[in-house]
Amino acid sequence: MSISLSKGQRIDLTKTNPGLTKAVIGLGWDINQYDSGASFDLDASAFLTDANGNVQNDAEFVFYNNLQDPSGAVAHTGDNRTGEGEGDDEQLTIDFSKVPSSVEKVAITVTIHDADARSQNFGQVHNAFVRVANEEDGQELIRYDLGEDFSIETAVVVCELYRHNGEWKFSAVGSGFSGGLAALCRNYGLEV
């Protein structure tokens, strides 16, 4: 049975699901009817950080132009440029057994491609969610619906998966950023 979380809640992921080694992180969203008329292209990304919250090198930033980190632990299944249809719009996979010991946290984010040029922001996005499912049987374990808390932001840190006492936990973050993907990269210590 899937557990629904609210912003700020944290939950054990691997401790409460013994044997879980591979998970699918599905992200979805809809675009409001009153949008600017330009097409929306939302992009999911993953930042693999150390204990200080910094990504050690560009290869540990997984997104549409870098579909997998060097260890093979985190992979992006591909860019969806329209977001149309039901269910997940983009997915990332994580193999907990392959995550390097130097990585303490995997931050999952969504950004709007060319948001400034297209005058778009997360105030025009609704029904955004993230869900975590067991890759082996597809069973949904966790779901976090982001709600309608955003206005001018062009990037959102959706959730974080992090190590705690040898187990992995899930944190429903839901924090908006201005400045899009570049601002997120700088936040995680990458040069843009």
UniProtKB/TrEMBL annotation:
Residues 1-188 form the TerD domain. InterPro entries: Stress/Tellurium_Resist, TerD. Pfam families: TerD. It comes from the Bacteria. This is TerD family protein. It comes from Pontibacillus chungwhensis. The lineage of its organism: Bacteria, Bacillati, Bacillota, Bacilli, Bacillales.
